[in-house]
Amino acid sequence: MIIHSIETFSVAVPLTKPFKTALRTVTIAESIFVKITTEDGFIGWGEAPPTHVITGDSLGSIKFAVEQVIGPQLLGLDLRHSERVFQKLHRSMVGNPSAKAALDMALHDLLGQLAGLPLVTLLGGYRDTIETDFTVSVNDAVEMADDAARYVRNGFNVLKIKVGIDDIAKDVERIRAIREKIGYETKLRLDANQGWEAKEAVRAIGQMEDAGLDIELIEQPVKARDIEGLQHVTLHTHTPIMADESIFSPKDALHVLQTRAADLINIKLMKAGGIYQALKINALAESYGVECMTGSMIETKLGISAAAHFAASQPNVTRFDFDAPLMLAEDIVEGGVVFDGRHIRFSHEPGLGIHTDLMNLRFSSKG
Question: Which domain holds residue 196?
């Protein structure tokens, strides 16, 4: 299975409602799709959305990295020697994790096809189905409570609430309003997206604990590189703390694990550079007795399919944040995972199960 060609395609899909966090507001999901074709005609697909405020990747940088830097170094390599291919991929240039992730997805798609197995099975096959949470964007308390109630009515039993955009008093007010609206049967996860300082995070979380608001976990309360602050929050609160933007690489994960700076880890393929590195991060976390969640950026079903195959294959990945395709006005991807409300199922097709013939019809020109 020799790598013959690598192509990129630009895609853009509107969201049904603006996605607001402490870091950014998104109204259109933009991505670069990557297509790898082998000499024997197999096709693998990957995706990389630009997330400037987290990964530093833009549409232009992803396209350039894939087409001009990394891609040419992969041409002619044999996927039957996959370890050599992934080593080349990750040593090809510094940074650019999203570009690497898109190529990594496409390579794993091809490996599944080479084995004749769904990728989830090839990677371990621990689960047949998984369930996603649904994200409530940060807005005023009334709007967030109304959104939360609507998602619960739509069958979601775990909500991820965005906070950290302004002062902690308003954040506490938001969570109170949501609890008053939906009750306590639904799990709530909070994601501050680096929006708090360590001491105010402890104060805010303490107020929510004292009020009995029953929060499952708090994700990335402080700045990404403030590991001491993250550790301070973890040590001074009862609610489990999850590291997200603080962890891109296995080295980052090891530092957080060794310092006990977080109780949980959120693995995203766009940060890790794909499944190859995500498996290493998860294995490290598991060795320390730390469970992981797998999440995503604002991606189409293509990127989510790859992340879901990875997450479902690993017993230590116990939480899933894959709601992004449900936020889009249109599903542009044929094949891949199947959504039924909060439930995600996998097809029996090899690799990611993407229907490349239909993808070719939709994206007939290079991005």
Answer: 122-345
CA dist., res. 276 & res. 273, Å (int): 8
The secondary structure element, H or E, covering residue 317 is strand 317-320
Q: Which helix (H) or strand (E) holds 14?
A: strand 3-20
- Let me know if residue 111 belongs to a domain: yes
Q: Are 293 and 220 in contact (CB under 8 A)?
A: no
Query: Does residue 365 lie within any of the structural domains?
Result: no
The DSSP 8-state label assigned to residue 192 in this structure reads -
CATH number at residue 64: 3.30.390.10
- Work out the angle between the directed axes of helices 275-287 and 250-258 (0-180°, nearest 10): 20
Contacts of 141 (CB under 8 A, 6+ apart): 170, 173, 174, 176, 177, 178
SS3 state at 306 = helix
Q: How many helices, marked H, and strands, marked E, lie in the chain?
A: 14, 14
Which tens digits make up the pLDDT trace of 27-84? 999 999 999 999 999 999 999 999 988 998 999 999 999 999 999 999 999 999 999 9
Which amino acid belongs to residue 349?
Answer: E
Does the pTM exceed 0.85?
yes
Residues 166 and 45 reside in one and the same domain? no
Catalytic positions are: 162, 268
**Residue 43 is assigned to a structural domain of this protein:** yes
Neighbours of 150 (CB within 10 A): 13
Beta bridge partners of 14: 28
Total number of domains constituting the chain: 2
Indicate the residue among 116, 147, 162 that finishes a domain: 116
At 112-139, the pLDDT tens digits run: 999 999 999 999 999 999 999 999 999 9
